[in-house]
Amino acid sequence: MTEPAVHVHNLWKAFGQQLAVAGVDLTLPAGKFIGLVGPNGAGKTTTLSMVTGLLRPDQGTVEVVGHDVWKDPAEVKARIGVLPEGLRLFDRLSGRELLAYTGRLRGLPGTEVDKRATQLLDVLDLAGAQHKLVVDYSTGMRKKIGLAAALLHNPEVLFLDEPFEGVDPVSAQTIRGVLERYTGSGATVVFSSHVMELVESLCDWVAVIAAGRIRAQGPLAEVRGDAATLQEAFLELVGAHGRDAATDLDWLGGGSTR
Ligand SMILES: Nc1ncnc2c1ncn2[C@@H]1O[C@H](COP(=O)(O)OP(=O)(O)OP(=O)(O)O)[C@@H](O)[C@H]1O
């Protein structure tokens, strides 16, 4: 059996009284397009932050491509790319300068960085904006330059926290194309989202998280089971059948003040 891309065992994290991640176990296979899905506040960002070495767990272990994230951080960080939520970029650099800087930090030779940066900027439709400061980029452009920076060193596993949030359909299609090509070559993508249609159309493997716990994980078809859509299966799994907004908000509508 090939080694899993990610192996998480009994992961816990609390912020004061707030339990964010409560005993997560995950085994994510290599070479798959994997979606980590869950409602707002489910613990997706906290889990991904601990898996990528950005946040120290209270308890539990994480291995990425066979290396312990907290005992062997340099080995892991050389093999992964990360696009965190609310990514803070060095935004007084231009897009091209940011990639040049990232490439050198990753230890790539200058000529290789130049070549890869040119190709990534081109494929991601950023060639025209490559000399503009990142601070002046739109949300979608920031996601795309962040993705380029995360891919530049050709990582084995790419982690993306809500990569399509705030991205228009054209840019989403571009990002999607790049990610499909990347997984097609045997690499692994793990991304978080609460947009079920997106996960259903992109992923071949999903993990469902709610209230800090994994509710299901496996191939998409297995997690969907007999439900017509992933959305339906998800609502069943997280036990959210929707409050009756019609009775709760009986004052809403028509603009009357009484
Ligand atoms: N730094 C923090 N301090 C305090 N509470 C936090 C912190 N980060 C997360 N939490 C809490 O932990 C829980 C899980 O949050 P997390 O951001 O991991 O969820 P999420 O699934 O990524 O949500 P969303 O889809 O809304 O981004 C929430 O209750 C959140 O309020």
Automatic annotation (TrEMBL):
It is found in: Cell membrane. It comes from Streptomyces silvensis. Residues 6-236 form the ABC transporter domain. This is ABC transporter ATP-binding protein. Keywords: Antibiotic resistance, ATP-binding, Nucleotide-binding, Transport. It is a peripheral membrane protein. Its main location: membrane. The keyword Transport applies. One of its GO terms (biological process) is response to antibiotic. InterPro entries: AAA+_ATPase, ABC_transporter-like_ATP-bd, ABC_transporter_ATP-binding, P-loop_NTPase. One of its GO terms (cellular component) is plasma membrane. SUPFAM superfamilies: P-loop containing nucleoside triphosphate hydrolases. GO terms for molecular function: ATP binding; ATP hydrolysis activity.
